[in-house]
Amino acid sequence: ETGVTQTPRHLVMGMTNKKSLKCEQHLGHNAMYWYKQSAKKPLELMFVYNFKEQTENNSVPSRFSPECPNSSHLFLHLHTLQPEDSALYLCASSQKGGKVTDTQYFGPGTRLTVL
Amino acid sequence: AQSVTQPDIHITVSEGASLELRCNYSYGATPYLFWYVQSPGQGLQLLLKYFSGDTLVQGIKGFEAEFKRSQSSFNLRKPSVHWSDAAEYFCAVGAESGYALNFGKGTSLLVTP
Known about the structure:
The structure holds 2 protein chains of 2 kinds.
Chain A: E1 4-7, E2 10-13, E3 18-25, E4 31-37, E5 44-50, E6 53-57, E7 64-70, E8 73-79, E9 87-94, E10 105-106, E11 110-114
Parallel strand pairs in A: 2-11
Antiparallel strand pairs in A: 1-3, 3-8, 4-5, 4-9, 5-6, 7-8, 9-10, 9-11
Chain B: E1 3-5, E2 10-14, E3 19-21, E4 24-26, E5 32-38, E6 44-50, E7 56-58, E8 64-68, E9 73-78, E10 87-94, E11 101-103, E12 107-112
Parallel strand pairs in B: 2-12
Antiparallel strand pairs in B: 1-4, 3-9, 5-6, 5-10, 7-8, 8-9, 10-11, 10-12
């Protein structure tokens, strides 16, 4: 595997379910990101992890819970989601300290549908 | 705070024709500017970026962009479009001190034969 991978690629869940999205980067990077891409809206940064420490939480509701056990893996735990949370969730990684000057490499995303 | 406007939601061009995608930003200081492309079913890929220096920036896949401070613009251009260029294009702006990139809503490019 190369680059940034995300699993699953598609997920359908009910509002009472608990699920997790997984992201793995094979680039040796130190920073990882979660973005939400909704239809007709700009890409929204959700969380930033830098050397496994969360450095940014962009006012994300608590029903989204990130976890970064090491620099290569990033999870997004989901529980009691709402239909408006349906979107494409993109993971990205970058080399250094998570600054905007670092090129971010994106995974293909997980298409989430909340029923 | 920084923001980005991409005025064109959809653009259609003929294969072989030239392309210009517009991007306007709002930011008080010198912005860090980016263009990303997203093909169907794929993540975003960086085409080019501008931090400082020469205002005409060359990127991958034959794309270039020009930073015009007086117009607060960072338009993306390509002299001759290929069918494989059909995708969604996103302009983004960031601040030197921050982590976040602020993205535009994107422009969807359709290439016709």
